[in-house]
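Field: COMPLEX_INPUT
Field: COMPONENT_COUNT = two
Field: RESIDUE_TOTAL = 630
Field: MODE = joint
Values follow.
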Amino acid sequence: MNKYTGDDLLLMLKIRYFELSLLDLFSKGLIKGTTHTCLGQEYIPVSLKPFINEKDFIISNHRGHGHFIALTEEIEGLLSEITGKEGGVCNSIGGSQHLFYKNIMTTGVQGEGVSIGLGHAFKFKLEKTKNACFVFVGDGTFGRGSVYESLNMASLYKLPYILIIENNSIAMTTKLFENMAGNIENRIKSFGIDYIKITSDNPNEIKEKIKEPILNAKKNSCPLAVEFVTQRVSSHSKGDDTREKEEINLINQNYWYNKLKSQNNTEFLKLDNLAKNEIELILKKVLLKKEAEFVK
Amino acid sequence: MLNNQTCLENLNAAMVDLARKDEKVIFIGEDIKAPYNGAYKVEKGLYELCPDRVISTPISEESFTGLASGLSMCGYKPIVDFMFSDFMTLGFDMILNFCSKYPDMYGRELKFPMIIRSANGGYRGYGATHSQSMQKYFMGIPNAFIYEMSPYHDNTKVFNRMFDKNKLCIFFEEKSVYNQKMYKLDNTGIFKLDYIGENDNWAYISTQSCKADVAIITTGGLSNTAINSALELLTDYEIEAEIFIPSQLYPVEISQIIDKLIKISNVVIIEEGTYGANWGSEILAELQKLMNGKNLIEKINLLSSDAKIIPANTKLENQVLINKEKIVNLILSL
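Field: COMPLEX_OUTPUT
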């Protein structure tokens, strides 16, 4: 517990309770469509947050609520968006997978963000602004050809392009070993791109490891890939988990939340309650709002 | 009007003019840097003028469309060169699922100036995968506008018009048009050129008599074929044809010419694309809507290339593609 910073933990917990409340709303039939929760991966955007400023650009994906919340803290706007209420960050047109607010954008089709990010990074290089484009992908996205086209161009043009890989070793229901020959590290390195592997789930440890490489990518305009070896605690979207119980149990045992909770630390439990209450309050407020209409 | 200018020279001059006047215009595509200047030399002079804004790419159509999209989001105005329009299928995910969605998908109106331009069409013996007329595959997409190069539309004006839309525009360039002279009609002086509609969208080519028997609606790529057909119909059969050529193909702006069409009893819509679910059927649907149940036009005929793949052998290719003989025969049969 003492290895964690209170602010980081609070943000991780807020993301967790946000995602849990979405699953609850789905089970009650209060949200339609689909949603992909990031339970188990909450610490990743929280660890990156200090190195991303308002002039950088972030492109996330279908599993993007955690990134969005960590980087914008616009929880009410996101919840309104997903529940179809007034005041959604994208006026209820985008929904869970198509968000664009301030400097973070998400797309619903895997492997689009990797190439769109090239354009933002190209602008940063052209205008010599010392910023970077951060692109989030999962291990499953490595099935897409655009990933390799884009890595090639990012390296070729020496772009400040930072690929954040959240390797939870499962794509929907298909395990990484059934999907991928070789490994991510070798694929990245074959393009001559700097690569870091992160196995920790502690933001303080992670920040220490990624700080210099990220600053270097921005300062010297060059691409970087950071692979987070992580785990998906929840199902792919709602109820589509085909993993064995034993496997899910093991994942739950390794879940940062469960590890910290089992320590019965009062400070953690305080933060846990704080986050839970905040999300509950926002949820209550949002559910009372009017249904969204077309905004022109 | 520079009457001796070829369409390619006019197009190249448009690129140079855009690059010179707006430093946000940026060029993306394969082999577009000097000394090669693109497969059809459309990018000639750009690299010398603004090397930072000429991005020569690997063979990565999907991702260079993404690169362009990102730049458009950042306030740049990308002009993306697909070497052959047949390869635009490789950028289709970006075109349909991002470029056309972006202006509206995020719940507020966002600007997305971007032009994809590409050499298009047959008659050159390139074979089945390098000769297609791809326009029809990109029609009917909300927020995507389809244009075609014509000898009667100044490319600088057309490109500025496309950028002003602040949405994705796709510009098709018939390969056989590159070397045609701008504004050239025929050598007899029988035809005259006028314009109809906003932005001079429709080039209107008619005889001096104004008593046409048939209206030909066609695209810039077939304008020469259409004029030659009209000339033969007039001199050999005393049938007068008027020709309508739009710059913007889709959405079809047919209301701009409906007043002219209803004065002519026969309308023939001619395109180079394959038969079925095409530009002609779209115009037909729009015409029906405008006529509102009244039979204002006696006959409307569609003419296209066959529903077949395009042979590489130019003799066989000509049998599959639309040509002057097919146009004349159809009009004689009316």
